[in-house]
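Need residues for this backbone.
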């Protein structure tokens, strides 16, 4: 069984010197420059910081997942992912499949932005108090965080699906418009972050509505509260009677995020922290106009979308949720990766892993 909570306060640590890092790099991520940028920007900085690297270049989907699941990782002090959020998702789930997962998850993880969205990298840059930056400036900032070597704990969310899968997520789960944009824009990945702008405009033009049932525990707690021992019942059973079922059943989008940024330029949950014990749940009700939806996404670049007081946009901090689509329609995503559309529920697991954080 997996723990629901760990130590009630964050424990900070520092990487040893000299330090040995396993770098998992996807050369196809984003605009396809990850290896080039690693050699030009990252390696010289790591050499100065006395961090020795072993570089593992992925050749296929799930390659990193298999590597960290099966490999003896004791020779490395940290696992570094140079790619988009999807490769870190592979790594986290590979680690959680190990028999020694509890010890292995104490090994600090590091994200270096090499993809299109780079949501966790942007979030960590934000938590470190740095100015908003993108592209190579963000890569430089995140590499500097690795060189400093400070690491802390990070929450994960476990997701259970009706088909029996159990997945671990560090960023977010989505259904509807936001997931549509993420997956539909994959064909423009060579454009880098600009793919999301183009994808947003295309999805606005064919705005869809999805029918489903959203439920969450009653009496939601403020960020910082630790989850109780058990918040979920099996998906085949009704939600507990003390849960709240959202009365609306037609949604444009549902998104549960646990970091501040949804992308480099999307500050979706400004109050989020690495270990706040909170799922920041947003949902957009049907009936919103295309103009209002566009205004929300433009405001999200500054993190001011809730200030618009849009009646269709709702935000609730929760520790668990359940989403049951009425039909297998629409795209579901976890950490930017596509999932089959089916009933799913999730629960926060406080401080389940460690991450290079800069502060």
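Answer:
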């Amino acid at each position: 069984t997996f723990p629901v909570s760990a130590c009630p306060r964050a424990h900070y640590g520092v990487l040893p010197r000299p330090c040995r890092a396993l770098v998992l790099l996807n050369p196809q991520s984003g605009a396809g420059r990850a290896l080039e940028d690693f050699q030009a920007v990252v390696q010289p900085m790591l050499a100065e910081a006395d961090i020795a690297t072993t570089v593992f270049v992925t050749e296929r989907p799930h390659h990193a997942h298999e590597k960290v699941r099966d490999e003896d990782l004791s020779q490395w002090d940290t696992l570094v992912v140079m790619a988009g959020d999807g490769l870190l998702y592979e790594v986290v789930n590979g680690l959680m499949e190990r028999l020694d997962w509890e010890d292995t998850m104490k090994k600090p993880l590091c994200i270096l932005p090499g993809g299109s969205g780079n949501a966790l990298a942007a979030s960590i840059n934000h938590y470190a108090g740095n100015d908003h930056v993108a592209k190579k400036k963000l890569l430089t900032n995140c590499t500097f965080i690795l060189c400093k070597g400070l690491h802390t704990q990070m929450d994960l969310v476990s997701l259970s699906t009706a088909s029996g899968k159990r997945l671990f997520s560090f960023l977010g789960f989505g259904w509807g418009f936001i997931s549509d944009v993420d997956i539909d824009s994959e064909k423009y990945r060579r454009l880098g972050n600009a793919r999301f702008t183009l994808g947003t405009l295309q999805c606005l033009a064919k705005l869809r509505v999805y029918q489903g049932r959203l439920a969450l525990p009653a009496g939601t707690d403020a960020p910082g509260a630790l989850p109780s021992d058990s918040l979920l019942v099996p998906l085949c059973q009704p939600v507990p009677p003390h849960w709240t079922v959202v009365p609306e059943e037609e949604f444009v989008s549902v998104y549960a995020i646990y970091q501040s940024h949804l992308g480099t330029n999307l500050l979706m949950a400004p109050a989020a922290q690495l270990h706040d014990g909170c799922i920041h749940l947003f949902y957009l009700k049907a009936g919103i106009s295309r103009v209002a939806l566009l205004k929300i996404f433009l405001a999200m670049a500054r993190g001011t979308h809730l200030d618009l007081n849009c009646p269709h946009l709702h935000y609730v901090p929760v520790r668990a949720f359940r989403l049951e689509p009425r039909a297998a329609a629409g795209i579901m995503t976890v950490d930017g990766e596509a999932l089959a559309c089916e009933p799913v529920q999730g629960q926060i697991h406080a401080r389940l892993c460690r991450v290079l954080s800069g502060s």
